[in-house]
Specification:
The protein is α+β, with helices and mostly antiparallel strands. The protein folds into 2 domains: 95 residues, no CATH class; 94 residues, Alpha-Beta Plaits (2-Layer Sandwich), CATH 3.30.70. Helix 1 crosses helix 3 and helix 3 runs antiparallel to helix 4. The longest helix is centred in the N-terminal third of the chain and has 37 residues.
């Protein structure tokens, strides 16, 4: 499709895997079946999007050909359809680029996260607590398990230091760029004159 050899190669392998999974002889080979099924599952999200992309591009081509004989009203509808389908196709291309990028060998691993209040005194500790709450909510959205390992509370309910483990699918892939300093500019609850302060916390993953 589109002369993209990577797409064509992946589809050819996926089609071959489908045929293998339907072979009764493979079903009798437990280890062989497991290996083929695992590879099939790995390729399936990519193959599905490639097929969707082909369908979108076929629709764009057909609508473009119809433009030559269309009246003004039909042309307006066709151009709107082409724009919509083109946007969907572009989205699939972006998804495929991410799916087909080389995998980090650590992507499937769990992570230990440490958050420390840094610059800003008690406000930094409160910000560290806010970051923890954010990661806790993020973990819940992704159905990850969060295990608290250590927490040192500050006087006003923040964290001077908190350490926790995250377990679940794609934890490292989604968390690996979170390490480093995080800063916030706001009026702290400790500020009586309404001045904006800059505070920071550090995150280690």
């Amino acid at each position: 499709m589109d002369g993209n050899p990577a797409y064509e190669e992946l589809e050819a392998e996926f089609d071959a895997l489908e045929e293998q999974l339907a072979d009764p002889e493979l079903l009798a080979n437990r280890d062989g079946y497991t290996a083929v099924a695992r590879r099939y599952k790995e390729l399936e999200p990519k193959a599905v999007r490639i097929r969707e992309l082909r369908g979108h591009r076929d629709d764009i081509e057909a609508a473009t050909e119809m433009l030559a004989d269309a009246d003004d009203d039909e042309r307006e509808l066709l151009e709107a359809e082409i724009a919509t389908v083109t946007a969907a196709a572009d989205g699939l291309v972006a998804e495929l680029a991410e799916l087909m990028a080389p995998k980090d060998p650590n992507d499937g691993k769990n992570v230990i996260v440490e958050i420390k209040g840094a610059e800003g005194g008690e406000e930094a500790n409160l910000f560290a607590r806010d970051l923890f709450d954010m990661y806790q909510a993020f973990a819940g959205q992704h159905r990850w398990e969060l295990e608290m390992m250590n927490a040192q509370n500050s006087d006003m309910g923040g964290y001077t230091d908190v350490v926790f483990m995250l377990r679940g699918d794609d934890v490292w892939r989604k968390m690996k760029y979170e390490g480093g300093p995080h800063r916030v500019q706001r009026v702290p609850v400790t500020e009586s004159q309404g001045r904006v302060h800059t505070s920071s916390a550090t995150v280690s993953v």
